[in-house]
Amino acid sequence: MENNLATRCLKVDPVRPETGAILEAGRILNRGGLVAFPTETVYGLGANALDGRAVARIFEAKGRPADNPLIVHVACREEVKHLAKNIPPAAEILMDNFWPGPLTLVLPAGAAVPPETTAGLKTLAVRMPRHPVALALIGAAGVPLAAPSANLSGRPSPTTAEHVLQDLNGRIEAVLDGGPAGMGVESTVLDLTGFVPVILRPGGVTPEELRELLGEVEVEAAFGDRPRSPGMKYAHYAPKAPLLLVEGAPGAVAARLMELAREQKALGRRVGILSCSGSRDYASVGEVVLAGRRENPETVAAGLYAALRRFDELDVDLILAEGLEDSGVGLAVMNRLRKAADRRIVAGSPVSFNGKQP
Ligand code: AMP
Ligand code: MG
After folding, report:
1. Where do you find CATH 3.90.870.10 in the chain?
2. Domain spanning 8-219: which superfamily?
3. What is the largest CA-CA distance in the chain?
4. From ligand 1's centre to the CA of 5, what distance in Å?
5. 73, 122, 201, 304: which to mutate for ligand 1, most atoms within 8 A of CB?
6. Which of 152, 157, 229, 336 is the pocket-test mutation for ligand 1 (most atoms within 8 Å of CB)?
7. Counting atoms of ligand 1 from 1, which one is nearest the CA of 228?
């Protein structure tokens, strides 16, 4: 697709979005256009979910594989009745507890949803976002919005309007700039069409929170052979340089990372280090970008995608990333890092760096 549209950047207040900008964006959507907007997860790229031609333009603008379905965003629960064929009792409980918010439900699709939106599946992914700009925009459009993350396919998701323009300037009609998006990682995708609920993609709502309400909840493996969420089979969230993920206990991770960074530096490579421990030793061997603090995975989620994009600017040859624990939102962060690593994953060293925690 050509980059020949004049993409407008419409500034909006993230708490009380200005009516003028929202109405203008709503008109663009009603004409079949594409508008990127902030949500409490990342920036989304919206089109009228009921208009197959508008939705097809999302795939074109992002370069997204046609078999990867989109999440439909609604402004109220009632709308789900018009989109899903039926709503299981578990879905009602989850909507009561987590909507509006970062939880996407996979339900049987109704007839109103075009095949472009569901990528031809018999199921539909739907969520009600919490961000005032997202809710106002869906209201102004008067239709549900199909909205994947507003990045070129395969790239890190955008958490600012600037990130959106880096990828999609000239390919979409407008972006609503409401400042940084909220959590920094995408919604949790939960499949409710089987006997046991399955997390297809970990995200803002944690397995622990879901189990408290539903009892048994499965988590689909990051690298299963036949993922039930079509999107999960693609390499994702990738910065330009290859990323190697070091997993394990903090001291072991730091030790292995230092070892690898020294090796690579000696070979003349420019090494990027994605750190959440804040270890000072890294500065001597690479370009360090901090993303939050390991003890508080929410802060790592919030800084993750901006950090990955920062390495593009630093023009590093490779990135070494510190892993964190798979609990709480840490599971979503690790899922994104494992995808970005595209199977380049190593264990921490058996001997801690300097024999101490970094
Ligand atoms: P994105 O909006 O780009 O962050 O990705 C949406 C995610 O939801 C992708 O991993 C999709 O494959 C997944 N998804 C959307 N619709 C469905 C569906 N009907 N069944 C399973 N997964 C879905
Ligand atoms: Mg995405």
Report:
1. 8-219
2. DHBP synthase (3.90.870.10)
3. 63
4. 27
5. 201
6. 229
7. 21
Architecture of domain 243-347: 3-Layer(aba) Sandwich (3.40)
Provide CATH 3.40.50.11030 ranges for the chain.
243-347
Tens of pLDDT, residue by residue over 286-324, are 999 999 999 999 999 999 999 999 999 999 999 999 999
Q: How many CB atoms lie within 10 A of CB 74?
A: 22
Within 6 A (CB) of ligand 1 lie: 68-69, 71, 106, 118, 121, 123-125, 148-149, 186, 189, 200-201, 228-232
Joined tokens for residue 349:
């060293």
Q: What is the 3-state secondary structure (H, E, C) of 112-179?
A: CCCHHHHCCCCEEEEECCCCHHHHHHHHHHCCCEECCECCCCCCCCCCCHHHHHHHHCCCCCEEEECC
* Alpha carbons 190 and 203: distance in angstroms, whole number: 10
What residues flank ion ligand 2 with Cβ within 5 A?
149
* 23-61 pLDDT, tens digit each: 999 999 999 999 999 999 999 999 999 999 999 999 999
Q: How far is the CA of 64 from the centre of ligand 2 (A)?
A: 9
pLDDT digits (tens, 9 = 90+) for 178-236: 999 989 999 999 999 999 999 999 999 999 999 999 999 999 876 665 667 776 666 67
- Please choose, from the candidates 134, 117, 12, the residue with its C-alpha nearest in 3D space to the C-alpha of residue 70: 117
Ligand 2 centroid to residue 168 C-alpha, Å: 14
Among residues 288, 292, 37, 304, the alpha carbon closest in space to that of 173 is found at 37
Residues in the chain, overall count: 358
> Of all atoms in ligand 1, which is nearest to the CA of residue 109?
19
Ligand 1 atom closest to the Cα of residue 186 is 4
pLDDT tens sequence across 241-285: 999 999 999 999 999 999 999 999 999 999 999 999 988 899 999
